[in-house]
Amino acid sequence: MLYTVIPAGGSGTRLWPLSRSQNPKFLLPLTGSEHSLLQATVNRLADLSDPDHQYVVTGTGHAAAVARQLPKLPEPNILVEPSPMDSAPAIALANAVIAERDPDAVVGAFAADHLIADRQVFTATVQRAMEAAADGLLMTIGITPTGPETGYGYLRRGRALPVGHLLAEFKEKPDHVAAVEYVSSGDYLWNAGMFVWRVDAFLAELARQRPAMHTAVRELAAHWDSPDREERLGRIWPTLERISIDYAVMEGAASAGKVGVVPGDFGWNDVGDFDTLGSVLPPSDDIGNVVIDTAGIEPAVVALDARRNVVVPASRRTVGVLGVDDLVVVDTPDALLVCPRDRAQDVKKLVDELKTSGRSDLT
Amino acid sequence: MLYTVIPAGGSGTRLWPLSRSQNPKFLLPLTGSEHSLLQATVNRLADLSDPDHQYVVTGTGHAAAVARQLPKLPEPNILVEPSPMDSAPAIALANAVIAERDPDAVVGAFAADHLIADRQVFTATVQRAMEAAADGLLMTIGITPTGPETGYGYLRRGRALPVGHLLAEFKEKPDHVAAVEYVSSGDYLWNAGMFVWRVDAFLAELARQRPAMHTAVRELAAHWDSPDREERLGRIWPTLERISIDYAVMEGAASAGKVGVVPGDFGWNDVGDFDTLGSVLPPSDDIGNVVIDTAGIEPAVVALDARRNVVVPASRRTVGVLGVDDLVVVDTPDALLVCPRDRAQDVKKLVDELKTSGRSDLT
Prior knowledge:
The structure is a homodimer. By secondary structure, chain A is of the alpha/beta class. Chain A is 31% helix and 24% strand. In chain A, helix 3 crosses helix 6 (199-209), helix 6 packs across helix 7 (211-222) and helix 6 (199-209) crosses helix 9 (245-255). The longest helix of chain A has 15 residues, at 87-101. The radius of gyration of chain A is 21 Å and the shape is globular. The interface between A and B is large, with 37 and 37 residues.
């Protein structure tokens, strides 16, 4: 039985105005069903890990929503960070808490807000990673690239192992030229932030590379079920280093030859923006318009001479699109976005613009 | 003192979703100020006609709104049609009512939903038409064309008169080739539906060409202030011919050499669609975006890399436009429209689509 850790943070700025800091991406039904990305992530893990072995780490602002979206998740398995500290402290704390309960646990960490098309292949891939992790390697699942994406970090494969390969190197987001090179070489996979390891192996690397963080999370975990958990958490948490798990642990572990990678080819999508969302969800008509109906009002969209648009009618309003192609139209009760699909990445800039113009209330 | 008749009807379908059958174009503040097109029309006529001499003919569904938008207009001057009958019955009735009060009246008829930039030139033009009308001609004011528009009817000038010209011919909306020919010839003006005549001259032509309609409106007018006005109006009105003033009277009168025309060059716009509206209203920024803020919320629009868009934030929402040019975005509480400015004419088709798909409630 796999223990799973799901860091549920981040607001998904490029999905504004649907995604807000108060109602972030992972809580939204962007799965083509009524399930949120978080719910889909938990459901996808059901073959590997029952609710008793699933842990979600989230912020103070979203703990209640997480608890209601995941009614089967035991309350002690919802770990609430006093403040956002990036992924390393969150994952480290969850692992320390799991180690207290089961020192021999095998733990998998998976993002809360990604889409995966083929659940069977995903499950089989995780099981291969668990196999390799049994030897003490920190395993990553690398996504087989479908193109020279510059928006992701890359993983360079090293020598072959009985299962998968050693991870030779983590690569930062490349420029286009480098990305083309990576993909054509066949030696690179996308870093999707999916990890599988033995909890003792992970904590040992944490102790080696980030001793202060290790000491802190072990102390927190040791007293997790004691009456002064909140007092202790509130005192210690702010002293932790704000850093991602890649920088804090994985890159150093890779240099030490302690990281392995297995390829994942299960239709992965990070739902980074409305364009990628439109490309992964099924069209609503035969001319490629994708309607993401989060409000459940039909017919919410009337399209005339309009093709390949991504329309999100998330208010009680009818949306009429006439003679426009490849556009993103997101309609929410207090804000409306119109932009071309190929500018969907820049929605973040518009959100920055809103903040600087004193409209943070909308972000 | 000029008597003025303002037929206030039509729903302005191409301005959907802002314009609705229940809240039509002429009642909307599309003037770049807080005034509605109807209010702007009445204000524009103030130099020629005081409220006591102004008459508005409107439908049962809009009488109350007209009365409230024009508080100075005497109640007897608001003529309410029992049912829509196109422009001839409306204008004929108003003229008959005016004739009862002043048989020597000079009457001007002006649409309720057009924009005019230069009020002084407009006033002077109407005064020239009044001069010519004194001889008994039915005068039209023709707009000097600014381009080969195919959306308007044209007026062909005949021989010169002391003031203006005889009208040789009314021309239906032409195709592009004909329109180019018309404009290059210099003999053609746009038919803007502006008329000035002596009430007796008009009623004589009505009697000659549409005797039944003449008899009916004269009877209605003769008993207008009697207790049984409503009973009589309800009985007679449905028997009237549903026809425009051009077909009912003006074309026949032109053939008989009884119509004159003076050119108007005062920045006329019929506010036909959001594209023309965007071209006549002042831009809200230095990159040509036109924001028509009918709801009065600032800043309602946040534009980034967006040029020459016409944005109507008519709900309480913020509209973000990113990387789009020459687009129309109209945001109302229950419906949203997105279309290119060069497709603005086809909004009518979208409204038809809504009606056929059972969403007449939105039209």
